[in-house]
Amino acid sequence: MEETGEEFGPWLARQLKLAGKTQAELAKELQLTRAAVSAWIAGRSTPRPTVMMEIAKALGTDIGTVHTRTTDTQAGLPVTWYHRPGYPDGGRDLGNAAAFAFDADVQVLARETCQNSLDERLTENGRPVRVRYTLHELTGEHLDAFREAILWNDLFPHYSAVSELAGNQKVGRVVDAGVRDMYEKSRLVLLRVDDYNASGLTGDDYADGKFAAVVRRQLESLKSGPGAGGSYGLGKATLWATSALGLVLINSTLSVPHEGRTERRMIGRLELPWREVDGRSYAGPAWFGRPDPESPGAEVARSWWADEETVAGLHLTRDGDEPGTSFLIVGAHDVASLEGESLEHDDKPRSEEGSEDTRDIKRMHERLVEALGRDFWAAMIGGGGRLPLLEVSVRALRNGDEVVADTPVDPSVEQPSRSRALRAHYEGATVDRLTESGQVAIRNIPLKLPLAGGVSGTLGTHQAVLLVTDAAGDEDTPFNQVHSLRGNRMTVKKVTARNVPLGTNPFQAVLLVGEAAGESAPFAREAEEFLRAAEPPEHDRWGQTEELTLRWSPSAYRRINNLTTEVNSAVRELVTRPKRGGREGGEALRKALTVKSRPRAKVPSGPVVPVLDKLDATIGDEGEWVITAEVTVPRGDEIVPMVPVAQLDVRSGGRPRLDWAELVAVEGCEVEDGTLRFAPGTRRATFRGATDVASHPVRTALTRLVLELRADKGV
Fold it and tell me: Using one digit for the tens of pLDDT, what is the confidence trace for 191-207?
């Protein structure tokens, strides 16, 4: 991208501030009137070429810099750290609360940062946004050089002050552990996230814009499109949460020039808790940049336009001049990988350097590839003339040398069945019903959108798209799941399909809602807005949220529950095998055989009571109890209807009763208003149910379930 020089007047005004000179002082050096300099700055006139040379000399730069005006002169104050002073009223912030919304988990980081890159994709050229994750371990002289580049000696007193308070608060303990690891093991892990064909951090340092939203502010979300994934302004906090040192450096190439430039806009932000250094208190955050001459005493640091050498020393050199942003997480760690090792990856090969090292770059590489393939597979799919939205890769380096080669995330490898389903949809190769392996069945699922403002009624019906295919090739992926996604095609919701008949062949399903269902789908934009409001900060489900309640109504989430019910019904219909006729092929066999019949047992008189025989209970994706129960029915002419009652097991007192979110018959019975009814002659029956999470008094994982069958009192 060719640089566009800044207008001479604003450029000259800033250089005078950086140099600490007034207009009168410059005029005196040039032997001109102050009015002449004022006219240049106001844009009423420009200096003659011979005067340009004198201006360059006065500013301590070359004539080329004055002519092109694509960078600041070197006459300004040097790059430094600015630490926000403590509050005058004595208040203390012991960490950034936004960072506590997420764990120190590279998989969460991947989800949030890749979503942000998708949201900032430049759509005019139709090309995908390219995102690359680079893990880089520094040791020895490479570590020393990097610490010098970030002015570590200036930062160290602040880290020492935090370490002294480490025993009293959480952030301090994390920072202390990060500093100790760097010194004790003589290493530092950098995790860099680059995106290309994205908007970049445009806008002023302080006024409204993408730059200020990310670097200066909390809980502000400025997204480029209506189908954006983020809405809380919390996702950026994962960058600092993943840094054990609370430090992130940024290099942005802008899609819209700022101060006449686009390349190498640099800034750093440090998140530490309140501290005292040399008798002075500091509030928490600090910024790495050039002192702003417009701030009192030129203390506040703002972004600066760096040269290539400075960028290289900070390990932030970008590939080419395509717009986008590079975030460098300093001291990256992956605490959540310890839980993953013990619970999810027992059968997977460990990295050579030990599974308990939260800074193991090979292990982090594995987890990044896994998360990106799981959450963004759909955004990487094209077909039928439609291009992918995303290309992503992960690599690992040590002191600049390749440890793990750049690994493109391939959706056909990570999610083979779902990738096949989405491509078939794009290419118009779907069917109405599955009859052969490899086919993709399609159904339209209605989502009735409510009216805003608490008004009763329906705005309109959006037609979501459900795709179902067999799970061939998905050995490492849970079967029988529905992945739901909207406009930016990030997987929002992953749930196991309910009420699927026993013996059904493994399958996978995809639900496309909002703009993911197609821009021409009725009410696609309105569905996008509605579901975006129904997502929590983690963007991992749709349900009741405060925004949904305020903008629509407290009952608006039921529209989503109805969508889920419709999806489950459609999935069950598509995957259930057609039943063969009861007498098909059996008549000739019956005629050829003689079977001695036994006398029928005497049927008891009076009503009989079914008994619970088997129970299978698991905790569902949203924290609900999901049960499958089998019932035996004694012989009798009259069978008492039964009511399934779910309760929590407690040590003393009455057992809390849970409500059913769903209760359905599988075989041998019917469900009417929460009551099981049995046809005469039934001997066994099966039903399934899911509890309503809203009725759980405590977290499900901390409880035990008791299921009882009680006679219907209405009989």
Answer: 999 999 999 999 988 88
